[in-house]
Structure formats: structure tokens, C-alpha cells
Specification:
By secondary structure, this protein is an alpha/beta fold. It contains 6 helices and 7 strands.
Length: 196
């Protein structure tokens, strides 16, 4: 009796969520293997000046490392991607786009390839439609997420250390602190406004 094996799959779809991978696998047929990244797989390192994972002297160049505990998963994804057409189907937001970019980097995918698929519902027609219209990874969304993460690290690490020493607070809320400052500054401008 003939039995299908994942080794026979010609295509690989990588999603973020394990539960999504099982549902999608039931829609796409036996020549497609569906795996999960289980969310983010890389993050800024905690090395370098102040543990920021950034080369501040070199245009704030980020240094990424595989997240602790994800090394075996990354190894599996690299192994399973060999000889297959890879489609990155992470979530359709800037975090998902960044996760997709990190996956593409680790898997050695060509950034010019149209291997990014996006769907907003987990239905068979949506999945098939996405597979029929792949695109390149949107580098602008990746840059947006990267900038937010870098601000998180710079503001969060430095401000959190200050707050820990002064008021025993665990965290400054990182980028939320920046947003709060902008709101407070704007409110001060509004309060100081004198109509003429």
C-alpha cells in the first residue's frame, strides 16, 4: 500500500502558529509540507555596548541571534527547506513581515524571489488564492518593525535600568515610554497655547 511521506512534498509553507499549520495542511494537498516557526525566531543580540545588540557607531547596525531555545527548530526548518519551493506565510502585519524576513535570511532565500504569501482568513480559497499570488517580502514593513525593536532596545534597556535603580520598577515599557513622552509633550503644547 502506497503511503505519503513529508519527504515527497515539493513545496514548504512556513506559518507562525502550529495550530494554523495543521489546518492549512489539510487544504493544500500532499505535495505541500506546512511547518510553523512558532513566532519570532531571531532577535537583537544582548552583546555589544550596554547589551543593546547594536553597533551604534556604525549607523545603529543591528546584530541578530537565534532566540534561545529555537536553535533546533531553525535547524529543522533549514533541513526541511532543502530542495523545496519555500513560501513564507507569516502574519500580515509588520511583525509577521519581519519574522518572514528573518526566516528568509536563515534559510538563505533570495530576497528578490516572490516567496511571501499573505492571507487574512484560514479558508481553502484564501490559501489557494495566496499561493497563486506570491510577492516579495515588503522591506518597508521589515524596516518599520526593526526601527520599533531598536527603539525598544535603546530606550527600554537604558530607561529600565534607570527606573530600576531609582524606583525599583521592573521595566519602563520600552517604546511605550517614547509614545507617552510624545503625548505629554503635545499636551503641554496644547495647554500653553494662547489663542490670538
Amino acid at each position: 500500500m502506497w503511503k505519503w511521506s513529508v519527504n515527497m512534498a515539493k513545496k514548504l509553507i512556513i506559518v507562525e502558529s502550529r495550530s494554523k499549520s495543521k489546518t492549512i495542511a489539510s487544504y493544500v494537498g500532499n505535495d505541500v509540507l506546512v511547518l510553523s516557526s512558532k513566532g519570532h525566531i531571531r532577535d537583537l543580540a544582548t552583546s555589544g555596548v550596554d547589551g543593546l545588540g547594536l553597533d551604534i557607531q556604525n549607523n545603529f547596525e543591528p546584530k541578530y541571534t537565534v532566540i534561545k531555545g529555537k536553535q533546533a527548530l531553525v535547524k529543522e526548518l533549514i533541513s526541511k527547506s532543502k530542495g523545496r519551493d519555500v513560501y513564507i506565510a507569516t502574519d500580515p502585519d509588520r511583525e509577521g513581515e519581519a519574522i518572514g524576513w528573518h526566516l528568509a535570511e536563515l534559510l538563505g532565500l533570495n530576497p528578490e524571489d516572490q516567496n511571501r504569501i499573505v492571507f487574512r482568513e484560514i479558508t481553502k480559497p484564501a490559501i489557494i488564492e495566496a499561493l497563486n499570488h506570491p510577492r516579495k517580502i515588503d522591506q518597508h514593513l521589515v524596516y518599520s518593525q526593526e526601527a520599533r525593536r531598536i527603539l525598544d532596545r535603546i530606550i527600554g534597556f537604558k530607561l529600565s535600568k534607570l527606573l530600576q535603580s531609582k524606583i525599583k520598577s521592573k521595566s519602563a515599557g520600552r517604546v511605550q515610554s517614547v509614545a507617552l513622552k510624545l503625548i505629554v509633550d503635545l499636551e503641554k503644547e496644547i495647554q500653553a497655547f494662547i489663542p490670538e
